[in-house]
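User: Could you go from structure to sequence for me? I need the amino acid at each position, not a summary. Structure tokens:
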């Protein structure tokens, strides 16, 4: 009963603190996924070139290359007449991109010489640069077709020049870009958990010490482990709510703002998000214990903010490490909190199989670390220095 009273007291006190509510229930769960997830989804959409989607292409002097125009049309380009001031039109943004066929194009083509083409593109405009990559790729395909026809016309088999045929088979899920995008889910979930209990952990120890309310609380006939348990459960409550709201926000962000990331090889649908949250849920207990323990070692609110601010690097470290160091999932790494959840959640998003042994080791290692940190927090609260 004493534990529930302390729990309710801490929750009510911190719901009155606008800063705690903002970071625990709004910034971490809502704004952070919207900013990072939405931004990455938009970048992915901008970087992805779709050859199946019809697109308008402004061409200057299209009548000089009818066969090329037919080839472009067969590759989902709708040919339009380009304005006379091609450079200024593209620079001003009136036209995304312009393809110009010079006067000597047909002559050079008939004489077996490189036929000139000019693409007016604004590299400062992402949409223009993206369309330029698409047009240039199709023109390269047209060039290879012409080269093959030229060699066949001269009685030369084009395959003679292909002395080695190397085929690169990428067995990863959506390549390096997919690996980075898959890491975003555990990154946002874990950072939101830390943000959810950050200010409550500070207030429940350093804050109460500065308000001179900690000493009367410690003087009550309550076992220290019950006192710590009540405070711990309050931090746990905010961290848990923050993680649930973050999971919902991530689903909505990738469903409506980043559909390209939510489809294909990567999966950000409801079952995936739910599975990811369940696999990361042991971190709710672990992160709450970490925040409680670190806050209990500090003497003031400012000192607690400094230490816990530095602690924010802790959940970010596995994200950056896994981008540059190839750490394979093994029984040893699965016992490490944070790292094991990163690896498990990446595999969930990439739709890879997950060993039940790895899941069990991840849960056991995280909960064991949580228990050790909880008992350390109890020891810290049992010292006179806590006042």
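Assistant: Here is the amino acid at each position, in order:
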């Amino acid at each position: 009963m004493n534990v529930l009273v302390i729990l309710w007291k801490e929750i009510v006190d911190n719901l009155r603190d606008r800063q705690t509510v903002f970071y625990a229930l709004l910034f971490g769960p809502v704004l952070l996924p919207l900013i990072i997830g939405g931004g990455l989804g938009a970048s992915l959409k901008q970087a992805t070139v779709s050859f199946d989607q019809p697109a308008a292409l402004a061409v200057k002097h299209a009548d000089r290359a009818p066969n090329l125009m037919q080839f472009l049309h067969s590759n989902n380009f709708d040919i339009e007449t380009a304005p006379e001031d091609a450079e200024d039109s593209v620079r001003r943004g009136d036209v995304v991109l312009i393809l110009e066929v010079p006067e000597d194009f047909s002559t050079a083509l008939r004489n077996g010489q490189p036929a000139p083409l000019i693409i007016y593109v604004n590299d400062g405009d992402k949409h223009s640069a993206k369309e330029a990559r698409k047009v240039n790729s199709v023109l390269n395909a047209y060039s290879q077709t012409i080269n093959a026809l030229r060699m066949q016309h001269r009685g030369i088999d084009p395959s003679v020049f292909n002395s080695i045929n190397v085929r690169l088979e990428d067995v990863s899920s959506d390549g390096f870009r997919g690996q980075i995008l898959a890491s975003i889910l555990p990154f946002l979930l874990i950072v939101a958990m830390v943000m959810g209990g950050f200010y409550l952990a500070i207030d429940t120890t350093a804050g109460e010490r500065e308000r001179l309310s900690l000493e009367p609380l410690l003087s009550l006939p309550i076992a220290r482990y019950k006192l710590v348990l009540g405070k711990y459960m309050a931090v746990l409550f905010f961290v848990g709510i923050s993680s649930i709201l973050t999971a919902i926000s991530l689903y909505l962000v990738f469903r409506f703002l980043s559909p390209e990331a939510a489809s294909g090889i990567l999966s950000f649908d409801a079952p995936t998000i739910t599975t990811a949250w369940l696999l990361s849920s042991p971190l709710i207990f672990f992160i709450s214990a970490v925040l409680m323990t670190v806050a209990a070692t500090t003497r003031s609110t400012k000192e607690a903010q400094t230490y816990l601010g530095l602690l924010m690097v802790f959940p970010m470290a596995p994200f950056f490490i896994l981008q540059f160091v190839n750490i394979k999932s093994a029984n040893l790494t699965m016992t490490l909190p944070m790292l094991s959840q990163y690896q498990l959640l990446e595999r969930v998003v990439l739709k890879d199989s997950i060993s039940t042994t790895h899941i069990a080791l991840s849960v056991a290692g995280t909960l064991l670390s949580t228990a050790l940190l909880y008992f350390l927090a109890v020891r810290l609260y049992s010292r006179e220095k806590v006042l």
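One structural detail worth keeping in mind: Residues 173-178, 261-265 have pLDDT under 50 and may be disordered.
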